[in-house]
Amino acid sequence: MADASPVFEERNPYEKGFSAYFDANIVPHLDTLENDRRRGLERFKNAITIGIVVVAVSFILLFRNEAVFHSQALASSIDGFGAFFSKYNDPNTGKGNVLLFIIFASCAPPFIIAAAYGQEAKKLLLPPLLKFFGDLNYDVSKNIQPDQFAEFDLLPPYSDHVVTNHITGTLDGIPLNLAQLQLTQGSGKQRRTVFNGITVLLRMDKPFEGKTIVRNAGGSLYYSLTGNTLQKVTLEDVVFDKWFNVYSSDQVLARCVLTPSFMEQLMQLAQLMHTWGEENPAPQTSASQPHDISCGFYNNGVFLTIPCNVVLFEPGSLFESAYNTHDMRKVLHQISLIRGIIETLKLDRRANRPTDS
Question: Do residues 186 and 84 share a domain?
Answer without folding.
Answer: no
